[in-house]
Amino acid sequence: MSSKSRLRFMSIGFFLFILLSTPLLIKANESEVGDEDLDGLEELLAAEKEEEEALKDQGDKFSEAEIVKRAQAIVVELNNDNTERIVGSNEYVLVMGYATWCARSAELMPHFAQAANSLKEMGSSLVLAKVDAERYSKAATFLGVKGFPTLLLFVNGTAQPYTGGFTG
């Protein structure tokens, strides 16, 4: 074979090699990209799952907050105008005297509201009421609120002294 024929043969062979190997290179590259895509997809799905769980946790927190908010709506808000009427017209009234700046009042309020919700669900005739003693000082004085928080039980309009112990 002459050098010209060899060159032509090698050129055609190289061309055929490139032509035939291109699909193999493309498939190999696609599988690599596919693996990268799968890895990326798995990462994306994991991130979405984490986000959904975070939203679910926030949803639970909002649900708890919503429950407390609804329960607080069950607690009667006493003021200077309605205190005597509410305490006198209900057989059992448990009053919480509080101040907005008092940390212990803030800690007790959600528990007081949840108790009101539970008592309502049980069909209890006990009315739970609260009075902002600084805002409604006349009502607080009438009820006998002297510190914060104060819990007072009224039976048929009369304050009942607490004779139990105290732990704090």
TrEMBL record:
<dbReference type="GO" id="GO:0005783">
    <property type="term" value="C:endoplasmic reticulum"/>
</dbReference>
<dbReference type="Pfam" id="PF00085">
    <property type="entry name" value="Thioredoxin"/>
</dbReference>
<dbReference type="InterPro" id="IPR036249">
    <property type="entry name" value="Thioredoxin-like_sf"/>
</dbReference>
<feature type="signal peptide">
    <location>
        <begin position="1"/>
        <end position="28"/>
    </location>
</feature>
<keyword id="KW-0732">Signal</keyword>
<dbReference type="GO" id="GO:0034976">
    <property type="term" value="P:response to endoplasmic reticulum stress"/>
</dbReference>
<dbReference type="GO" id="GO:0003756">
    <property type="term" value="F:protein disulfide isomerase activity"/>
</dbReference>
<dbReference type="InterPro" id="IPR013766">
    <property type="entry name" value="Thioredoxin_domain"/>
</dbReference>
<comment type="similarity">
    <text>Belongs to the protein disulfide isomerase family.</text>
</comment>
<dbReference type="GO" id="GO:0006457">
    <property type="term" value="P:protein folding"/>
</dbReference>
<protein>
    <recommendedName>
        <fullName>Thioredoxin domain-containing protein</fullName>
    </recommendedName>
</protein>
<feature type="domain" description="Thioredoxin">
    <location>
        <begin position="44"/>
        <end position="168"/>
    </location>
</feature>
